[in-house]
Amino acid sequence: MSVEPTKMPVPSAEQFSKHLALLCRLVSRSGWSDLGASHMSVRVGSNNGFLINPRGHFLGDINPDMLLHSGLDSPGCRNKSDFEASVGVETHSEIYASRLDVHCIIHTHTTASIAVATQREGLRMYSIHAAMFYQRLGFYRAKIGENEAKAWTQALKTYNAMLLCHHGMLVCGRNAPEAFVRLHLLQKACEEQLACQNSGAEYFTLDSDLCTAISEQTERRLSDHANTVWGGLISSLGVTFK
Ligand SMILES: [Zn+2]
User: Rounded to the nearest whole angstrom, what is the distance from the C-alpha of residue 201 to the centroid of ligand 1?
Assistant: First the structure.
């Protein structure tokens, strides 16, 4: 289940902040921002430092210079209290520290992901998008009194996606394009499951062998696919950061 090292070029420090700002805007345009409560980050450099979106700002308004940096002396960090107050900092820190293959994290509260995450059987194999996550999907259900950051990290295991019961989903990637495409795919899988269940009709479930094949193929091809569509996604936003 472990992720192979990326073959994609490593962005410069300036590109990291642009990628994250664009990622925020893409999530917003998709309707997944939850009034700015969603949070996303990108790892910067070779240590566990990262950029994350600031609390209290709509994702559609995020610019690179608004992002918060985990290193207090780094560009983009406005002050310590800003960073500590940013939603999700502890969780992102914990995941980056334990998962060196992860370079981007997105957490959202979409209606479809909450609706599926809260079902007892979770994500069912009703669509090819669901099969892309076959045996590659973590699950977390909150327990009172536990350290949430550590619990999320343990529930994620070595996967790059996780459903959070009553709460939403979290995806990871080796870069922003990969994480966004994974978010898109999991969101589609959840919407498709709800569509099947709401149709009132009987439906088939994909065979496990086919699910395995689809899941393995997705892992092999996702990075290239994400790299290919990222340029078009950015162009469609119609924004250029200097
Ligand atoms: Zn949340």
Answer: 33
